[in-house]
Amino acid sequence: MIKLKTVVFGAGTDLGVHIDGANLGPVQLLNDIKPFFHGETVLFERDKTLIKSRNLSDRRKNEYEVEAFNSKLYKTMVDKIKEECFPIMIGGDQSASIASALASAKVNVDVGLIWIDCHPDYHTFETTVSGNIHDLSLAAINGYKNNDLRYYHDGKIIQPSKTVIIGARNMDDAVRDNVRYSGVTVFTTQDIKEKGIEAIMDEAFQIAGFKAKGIHICYDLGIIDPDFAPGVSVPEFDGITEEEAMQLNEYIIKHINSVLSYDLVEFNPLRDVDRKTEQIALNLLAQIIRAAENKKKFEQKTYY
Description:
alpha/beta
């Protein structure tokens, strides 16, 4: 079998959140990986002439700007995946994962999804309070309303029945209802503490990989407690430790041949303290890049 070429995308956007700074994360991390990654990198930066809305009463804040940014990212990622490349996308806020996950679904068709995040991101335009698009991203990927955020996509969406959220610890009633009605599987931070990383990930891979060609991973640094990783736009306390964060990634690496694509999102350098979050992000990227560069051309594995 042949090795796949690894391509690292930087999605420099903070349009999906009212907090500034996540757009700077990919630029910083792409620079950080230069000493050990000599492959192809592609950086997308948001139009600096745009006037970003930060109005928390606007439920459709920066909707068209996010869609335009994601349309370009999506098309480029689709082209690279068709060339049998393994894509790693560095965000940027998590609205960029709409483009990344759907690009994987466009080419690979039957895809499962593991969403590692303290927020389920399952709001709709009707239920959102903040109007932050990153809070609508997983619902958009699953085809649960929010079709305005995926006009550029003409392939299959990723089924909620093959979607697993890991690390959720902040769900308001509207999101809880949306998740329950959708059929997505949720493991909370407390589940991780009680059952352990391996047991949770074993089950997650079984669910996301069931009759699927492979799995898209979206890893939001917000799953980590801000005592360890303060450099995110919307931190939530009572998260996992740095050690547990690395264990999650190590499990993914151990099963890299079942993984089709990988996102690492929400690093905000303006919120970081002593570069703690940057170092964790860099360690996660170093691990996944090393694994990706040794990954062979995908052989379909389905779970029954």
